[in-house]
What does this fold into?
Amino acid sequence: MKRIVWCLTLMMLLVCVGAWALAEEEVYSTGDYEYVLLEDGSAKITKFNGYGDSKTIPEELDGHPVSAIGASAFAPYAQLETVEIPDSVTDIEGNPFTDCNNLQTIEVSADHPTLAVMDGVLFEKTTKKLVCYPAGREAASYEIPQGIAAIGDSAFNRAKLR
It folds into this structure.
């Protein structure tokens, strides 16, 4: 009886470990970026390891369209002052620019399908959520535009509002 209980316990443990291993996302690396592949075959940037004060996020990595940026993916990237987000990026988790203390300018196209920049601040159009107030912008105050329904996690991280 003890042997059966021991075998069943061992089998349950192996099933749990196997399920956990399958749930782990494989992280890929190319150039200055680390990313994971999403179910639709697109890429989500999870980490940026580069340098420079200006960055244009690529539309694709290793042939996979970049559709998402993970929370804190560019943190801590102290040199970053300007970032341009391509139209391919339609999903942003949290604030990818947390701890980017010198970030002053975020750029998206006027026709971007899901993102907008108003008064230099990044918003999601569909959720009407404030995503990121650039930490390098110095201002006495900031008035959240009327109609904004939510403020994202860490949206004002390191903001230089007085």
Q: What stands out?
A: The mean pLDDT is 88.
